[in-house]
């Protein structure tokens, strides 16, 4: 799945970049592909140790320690950036269906780029405490093998109560509850307006140029709604449910470590499914994207021929 996410999002970036950035939608989808690519890559680094562990346990321990100390916080930042960009897509589409005549004046390419840059900066800054929680210590094992072991930093030990509260209460709600509510409400309103528009178009003549343009707009909205729906189902709902259960269950202290690990693995699997799905959505629901992909594939095949 991580490999599919890396390859799929690389293709997304190539094709969307080829289409240019005149439209705010292209800017958003390209940026979304970048954050999904970073998430998929860092996620693969997080699972690399389990593969290496079958051959070399010491090396696997070192890889896992390096991931926990240096990479895991970036993985969480990429996930949050992806979630909030989906929220931006939902809000932008809500404006498009509610005030279609004013949306091009409100949402300009420059404003969209500024908003996306702000999302990256703010959410990356929010995970800074996670970078300060662990450090690496190199220890010598049997047979003169040096292994990296991660352990809590003195900063984390001194401020563990505050940092744990920040991660469990603040960061988790920023990652789950806020975007879940926003994306759900926006998607519901968009779905209602989309249903109304589709019924209205069915009663009109399809030969009209205006109707043809409206049909293309409806198809575009459907695709973006699918882009919002997948993270809503595979990321926001399970994340919020799992975190609420673990946080508010009366038997929280008695929950086994194994159960929490299973929840974490299931969550990571769902996150990766979401990050890997956009390429399929674009190819199946956007004729222009699919056409560019076929042309790119055909061009590569011609180059490979002697």
From TrEMBL:
<protein>
    <recommendedName>
        <fullName>G-protein coupled receptors family 1 profile domain-containing protein</fullName>
    </recommendedName>
</protein>
<keyword id="KW-1133">Transmembrane helix</keyword>
<feature type="transmembrane region" description="Helical">
    <location>
        <begin position="262"/>
        <end position="284"/>
    </location>
</feature>
<keyword id="KW-0807">Transducer</keyword>
<keyword id="KW-0297">G-protein coupled receptor</keyword>
<keyword id="KW-0675">Receptor</keyword>
<keyword id="KW-0812">Transmembrane</keyword>
<feature type="domain" description="G-protein coupled receptors family 1 profile">
    <location>
        <begin position="8"/>
        <end position="282"/>
    </location>
</feature>
<dbReference type="GO" id="GO:0016020">
    <property type="term" value="C:membrane"/>
</dbReference>
<dbReference type="InterPro" id="IPR017452">
    <property type="entry name" value="GPCR_Rhodpsn_7TM"/>
</dbReference>
<feature type="transmembrane region" description="Helical">
    <location>
        <begin position="115"/>
        <end position="134"/>
    </location>
</feature>
<feature type="transmembrane region" description="Helical">
    <location>
        <begin position="223"/>
        <end position="242"/>
    </location>
</feature>
<dbReference type="Pfam" id="PF00001">
    <property type="entry name" value="7tm_1"/>
</dbReference>
<keyword id="KW-0472">Membrane</keyword>
<dbReference type="GO" id="GO:0004930">
    <property type="term" value="F:G protein-coupled receptor activity"/>
</dbReference>
<dbReference type="InterPro" id="IPR000276">
    <property type="entry name" value="GPCR_Rhodpsn"/>
</dbReference>
